[in-house]
Each structure stands twice: as structure tokens, then as C-alpha cells.
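Annotators were shown the component list below and the corresponding predicted structure, then asked to write short factual statements about the assembly.
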Amino acid sequence: MDIRVQPDPFDYGAESARFAQGDGQSGAVVTFLGLVRGTGGLSRMEIEHYPGMTERALAAIAGDASARWPLSDVLIIHRFGTLAPGDPIMMVATASRHRQAAFEAAEFLMDYLKSRAPFWKKEFGPDGAEWVAAKDDDETALARW
Amino acid sequence: MIEVLYFAWVRERIGIPRERIETGAATVADLVEELKAREDRYAAAFADLRALRVALDQELADFSAPLAGAREVAFFPPMTGG
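Structure shown to annotators:
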């Protein structure tokens, strides 16, 4: 299990390739990359987080996923600080013997990351700055698990 | 003494990211009432508790949770990670 919270960019291709080298037992790797959307004239985004709690929350979420699905490895990278449209925000990767577990676990990680990891996004656009509001959908997405 | 942390717009409304507070509050909700009585900026930040989340020692908690033994309490809006 590899969990990183960092201001710096990461290389999605290199991280995915390294993760996919695996242990020779996994038959499936799923990776997901989240990017900053430049819609609505967004010029930049600032991501704030709660140092200490963030790492604990991500480890707990990854632990829950590992308890539910037979995962051989999990990677979570999430950035904070100032980001521009097109920048990578975060990635998750899961490895398992079979693809269904890898897909489901990656979706589970994403759903929980959205509303249970202490990150907050502030968007800067033509009309000024605004904190991104959590969506009701984010909570209902958890109910399916 | 308890360390109180504020994040996102809660931090902006109160104007500081953290402070140490001497309190005899029994629960998180009691602490919130103490803070609201202090100054308008706290009253503004805590006007609608449904819009807020709380963590005790870095674990999500309820406003009814007891403060006894907690070192750190944090207030913030619903999280928007991913």
C-alpha cells in the first residue's frame, strides 16, 4: 500500500508503469487519473487539506478496500496547493487477481476519497473565488457500497 | 486546553487556521456555543451546523461527542476530495 499527499506534480505514466510491474500474481491493474477541469473560465484551483488526518483517512479508506476485495496492491496519490486546468490532481491504482475486484475497489476508493478525505477545493474564475460545495450525489454514491 | 483547527471557509470566516482554547465544554456542541458567544466572526462561521463537519483527534465525529480527553478538534465544511 502506497499513499502520498504532496504539492508536487506526479508522472501518471511512470507511476502506472511502476505499479503494473506487480508481483507476478495479479492479473488486473486499474488506474484512475483525476485532472483539473478548465470549465467556466477556471484559471486555477487551490486545494487545502488537513495534514495528519488526510494521511489517516486515506490509509483507512485503502484498508477498507483491501478488506473488501482481494487486492495485492493499492496506490493513492493526492495533491494539494495551487493547480491549473489540465493538471493532475490525484490518481488511484488497484491490483488484483481478477479485473472485477480491481475495478470495484478503484471506484470504492474514488467514492470515499470524494467525501471522506479532508480536502477542500477553491476555484478561481472570472467571477472571483468560490469554495466547491459537496454534492448530494457524493453522499448517495457511498450508499451503494 | 484543546487545539481547535479551522479549514476552508470556516478558517476564512474566523480569520485564523488554529488556536488553543481553555474550555470546560462537555461536548463539541457546547464548545461551539462558547465560541459563538465570543465574537461575531465565530457566530457567522457556526451559524448553520448542518453545513459543517467536525473531527476529534483527526477522526470524524458528531457534534454531540464528548470533548473529554480530546487533544484536537477541527471544524470544516463537507469534504471535496478526488
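Statements collected:
1. Strands of chain A lie at 2-6, 28-35, 44-49, 71-79, 81-83, 88-96, 119-125, 128-131.
2. Chain A is about 35% helix and 35% strand.
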